[in-house]
Amino acid sequence: MTGLPKLWTDAAQRMAASVPVIVATPQGTPRGTVLLVHGRNGAPAQPQIAEIALAYLARGWRVAAPELPHSAALPDSGPPDQLTFTGHVRAATGVWDWVAQQWPDTPRALAGHSLGGFAVAHLAAASDDTHHVLAMSPPMSGQVLKRAREAMGPAAIDEVRRESPAYFAEMQTADAEPALNLIAAPLAVVTGSEDGLIPLKDARAYFMAAQNGRFFGALPGEHHCPAGAPCAGMLNAALTALGA
């Protein structure tokens, strides 16, 4: 994971509405801008998010990574127990609109990890000009996450119910499949073959629900938050397939 701790050193922090956004710019003129959305209790500095950012920067893309509300990893983002699927999508949509206003004349792409993958499916479905979508360890629905936790045992269910009660309640109805069906942009999925939160069959279902799936890759031995050299290679292959 060489370079991850230094990734955001020279990045600029800006604001989209009330959401802080860390913007990292490659050398030279950016080819485009990717909105990189973290998951539940995520943050731009987490290794799996930084790994995605490095892959884009290496290809000349500007990266806008928001610190979305109600993440336990971001102490200033608000109470984690107020997180919801709809709130995460709504906050990401506000930043996506801001990205379009800031850089209207170059391609815009979407990338997300875990719940961020759920969010970018909705954003892409509503945006005809999305260049591509990259999802890492993405859940297609709240039911996917609920089933996985049930398989882990009662303690896993009790944990999410206690930590994020509204999020837990929304697991019953949250669904990105209709949005994925509408996405015309090229889409890729990278996941860990041993992911317990998003089992491989569910990550594949997310991919298959899209009209224009271009790349699906599962990293052997990796779990929910892949990072490191094999992940970097897989991301590079995915971005090649997406024309990034």
UniProtKB/TrEMBL annotation:
What's the domain of life for this entry? Answer: Bacteria
Q: Which residues form the Serine aminopeptidase S33 domain?
A: 29-143
Name it.
Esterase/lipase
